[in-house]
Amino acid sequence: MTSTAERLIETLRAEILALGQQGGVVTPSVYDTAQVLRYAPPVDPQPVIDWLLRQQHVDGGWGPEVMPLARHVPTLAAVLALLVSSDSPGSHDAAARGLDFLRRTAELWSFEQALPDDIPVAVELVLPRLLEDAAALGLELPQQPFRLLRTLGERRRGLIARMKLRAGTTPIHAWEAWGTQAEPAVVDSSKGVGNSPAATALWLHRRRESFPDGAQELRGAEEFLARASAATRTGIPGAVPTVWPIPGFELPWGLLALRSTGLLSHPALQDVLRPQWEQLQRGLKPEGMGMSDNFDVDGDITATTVALLANAGHEVDGRVLERYRREGLFITYSHELQPSLTTTAHGVLALAMLGQDASQPLRFLLEKRGHNGVWVGDKWHCSWLYATSQVMGALAQAGAAAELRASAEAMIALQRDDGGWGVGTASSASETAFAVHAMHGLRSAPGACGVAVRRALRKAAAWLTAWEAAPGAAETMWIGKELYGPVRVDRVFVLSAQLALELDRELLSR
C-alpha cells in the first residue's frame, strides 16, 4: 500500500467516525442567517452583518451563480436584514445593489405553464412571504414574474391548512413563511422549529413578544440557534445553516459513498464502520428514517438506508418502502408536488438489493435521461453529476449494463480538459468525485468502454491531487431553501473517490 493510500485511509477513518455526530456540519446560509439577524440577532450583530456583506456577489445578488433560481430567496432576505439591522452606508449600498439584482432577474421566474421540479425547497412559500415583507417596507419589486410561484404557494398553503400540524413535520420546516402564532406545539425535542434556524428565529421573536416571561422555552430556542451556528464552523454567532440537525442524512450518505467505491469491505475501515452500522440499524424505524430523530421520515433516506443495510447483509424489512411508492416512482415526503429523480434512484437501488422487482421505477429513470445521455433536474442537488451518479448506481445494481455503459460514455464526453467535472465555470471536487463514483464499477469493463473509463479516471485522479494541494471553500450544491453544503458528506465522497483511485493506480495505468 502506498503512503498516499495510508494517509487517505487515516483521514477517511476519522471522517467515518464523525458522521452524524453533533447534529452534522453544514455550510452557513445567507437566507437563514439573514432571518436570524432580522428576528433573533446576536448580542453584537456586526460580525454577522459583515459576513453577510462579504457573501454578496459583484452582480449585486447573493447565492451561488450555478443555480439562478436559488438566488432570489437569499438575496431578498439579505436586503431586508441589512435594511432593518444596520444604519451604515455600506449596508444600505449593498441592499440597493441587491434590489437592483432582483429587478433585473425577476423574469427568470416567468414560466408559462409549469415550474421546474428542481426549484429550491419551500420557495413557493418563502419567496412570496419575503416579497410581502419588502412591500411592507415600501420596496418596489416586480410581481408578475412570480405569478406561477404564488399559485403553487397558495396550493401548498391550502394543503397545510387542512393538515393537523405536529412538530417535526415537513410544513414546519418553512413555518416562518406561513406560521402566525408561536405555539409550543411546533417546537420539537431539539428546542428548535422544523430543523430550520429561520423558522426557529421567527418563532422565538413572536414568542418573546407574546410571552416575554417564558424564560425556559425562550432559552431553549436560543440554545438551538447557538448550536446551529456552531455547526457551520465559522465561529460567527448568528451565522447559521439552512437545515440542521442532519445526522440521519449524514450517516447513510457517507456510507453510500463508501459503497459506490467498493470501500465498505476494506479491512482498514471495519472497526470504525461497525458502530456506524449499529447506529444506522437503530435509526431505521418501521415507518422509515428521517434526517434527524426530531423530523419526519422520508423516502430518500429510508430507501438509501434499506439499500445499505441489505447490501451489508443486515436483516431489513423491505415493506417499509411501500409507503413511499407512488405511480411508478418513489416520493421523498407525503404531499410533495415535485418528484425526485434521485429518491427514485435510491428506491430502485433498495429494491434491487432486496431482490425485488424494480422494473417500473427503472423505466421512469430511463425515461428521464436527457438527450445528452445524463440526468438533470433533481430536486435535492443542482448538479447533473450527482443525479447521474446516483442513477448509474441504481442501474448497475439492477443489471442494466447496456444503459450504464451508454451513460458512462456520455459522462466521459463531458469531462473537462483539466480532468475534472463541474456545472459551473470550473471543475469542482465533489462533482469530480461523483463522476468517479459513477464510473468506478466500469473500470474493468472489457473493450473500449473499460479503456475509456480508465483513461477518464486517470485524468480525474490527477485533477483531485492538484485540488488537494490547494482546496477551496466548502461547496454549496445541495438544494434546500438555498444551496448548501453538508460538509462531511461531500468530504467522504471526495476522500473515498481519491482512495479508490489510489488503490486502483496499477489497474488504471493499463
TrEMBL record:
One Pfam family recorded for the sequence: SQHop_cyclase_C
Entry-linked InterPro entries: SQ_cyclase_C (IPR032696), Terpene_synthase-like (IPR050148), Terpenoid_cyclase/PrenylTrfase (IPR008930)
SUPFAM superfamilies assigned to the protein according to its UniProt record, in alphabetical order: Terpenoid cyclases/Protein prenyltransferases
Positions of the Squalene cyclase C-terminal domain: 350-430
GO BP annotations, alphabetical order: diterpenoid biosynthetic process
Molecular function GO terms recorded: magnesium ion binding; terpene synthase activity
PANTHER family attached to this UniProt entry: (E,E)-GERANYLLINALOOL SYNTHASE, ENT-COPALYL DIPHOSPHATE SYNTHASE, CHLOROPLASTIC
Name of the protein described by the UniProt record: Squalene cyclase C-terminal domain-containing protein
Native species: Cystobacter ferrugineus
Lineage, opening ranks: Bacteria, Pseudomonadati, Myxococcota, Myxococcia, Myxococcales
